Amino acid sequence: MKKVLMIIMILGAFLPSYSVSPYRDELAFKAGEHAVYNIYYNLGFIWVHAGSAEFSVEKVKEKGKSYYQLQLTGNTKRSFDKFYRIRDTFSVMVTEEDLMPRYYREVKNEDSFFADFRYYFDYSGTPQVRFDFNRRGVKSLDTMNIEKDVFDLLTTCYRFRSLDVEKVDKGCYLPFNMLFDKSVYNLGLTYKGKEEIKLRNKKSYKALKFTPRLITGDLFKKEDAMSIYVSDDDNHVPLYIEAKIKVGAVKVMLESVKNTKYPFSAQLGK
């Protein structure tokens, strides 16, 4: 169950490099959108409802300027806490006009582990990010230069949702750059096409399928150990993830979503 929220955040970490941008000018979300997910973990032959996660979008003001506040919270169920307890919050403040991050924060409470990671982005000159980390009570400060197309996980998630799938061919590999901890990773994903899926909430959806190339190590055995499905409509709401990890497997399923910017037409049989 450790780092399972990382799987959720990789839902949207797909920022491709194109000579012609495959992104729509219009954002795929609005303030007030709220989505709830259930997390299932495979313990041998049994799937256990291990926890839940929630994505939310709000508008905030900082020094008289409006920003989007994007947030992800994740918690294990009390019945699962005896195996591994998680109470995590990820948030980022991004500009309204182009979704450039200004301040990103991760607060992790995972069993006996505590961390508070803060990232301050500055694009006034050479793009750079300042790190203010507290890991198990040990504080550290650092600064690094980055390219302008390098983003934190949560920002990248919401930027991806403006992808214009009509400009992407089935089987196309899309590279992207992701900032994690104090390192930049050059990753990518493959667009696999359109499918219909049915989730545990007994609802069926039209979906777009992607398979990302992942960071192997503590969590994933293979680079292609995950499949991701997002709604096949203008919202591109994440619907479902299935992933094989080093110990067991994880499924993340949409339970509910409200206040989408566009009609949620991917849901079938309403």
- Could you give the order of the helices and strands? HEEEEEEEEHEEEEEEE
Structural class: mainly beta
Number of helical runs?
2
Report the portion of residues in β strands.
Answer: over 45%
What does this structure look like?
- The chain is mainly beta and 270 residues long.
- The chain has one domain (4-268).
- 5% of the residues lie in helices and 53% in strands.
- It is built from two helices and 15 strands.
- It has a 15-stranded antiparallel β-sheet that branches.
- Mean pLDDT is 87; it is low at 7-20.
Quick structural gist:
The protein is mostly beta strands and 270 residues long.
List the keywords:
270 residues, mainly beta, 5% helix
Blueprint of the fold:
Elements: H1 4-9, E1 34-43, E2 46-62, E3 65-76, E4 87-95, E5 101-110, E6 113-122, E7 128-135, E8 138-145, H2 153-160, E9 173-180, E10 183-198, E11 204-213, E12 226-231, E13 238-244, E14 249-258, E15 267-268
